Amino acid sequence: xxxxxxxxxxxxxxxxxxxxxxxxxxxxxxxxxxxxxxxxxxxxxxxxxxxxxxxxxxxxxxxxxxxxxxxxxxxxxxxxxxxxxxxxxxxxxxxxxxxxxxxxxxxxxxxxxxxxxxxxxxxxxxxxxxxxxxxxxxxxxxxxxxxxxxxxxxxxxxxxxxxxxxxxxxxxxxxxxxxxxxxxx
Length: 185
Known about the structure:
By secondary structure, the protein is mostly beta strands. It is built from three helices and twelve strands; from the N terminus they run αβαβββββββββββα. The strands form two sheets. Strands 2-12-1-11-10-7-8 form a seven-stranded mixed sheet, with no helix packed on it. A five-stranded mixed sheet has the order 4-3-5-6-9, with no helix packed on it.
């Protein structure tokens, strides 16, 4: 037998590609602590946390408006299946997290689709899962976008996007629709 025949079968690794956008990223440099364009290996039993607290979060967003832990991602295998998936959980008490068209309040969680946009505040993150077989770890690869992801990808937004392309998932005020009588002045 040759060494090639005796070699272990190479296992593919799931990779989560995340493209980040914020309208003030040039001025505020909130992504400066992210390892952009480099694959990072994460153990399968580790939560991948995103937020501003560098002692708790693996992925730091340098912005005082971001929660200490904004959201977390859990890698898991579906019951009675070989399918490997991610679950996303909103860890912010103050800010809702939008995953595609699903709104997550504090401690709500949902499966991360193969491709979706995650929004909170003025942040837009395109998440794309590249499937793999390894159950011991996964990779992350982070990217930055110069243009709003909702505009660039021409994907539907959970809310209307103004012409400026700046989208805020958190309304500036709690306004609910009011009914008025058009006959009254």
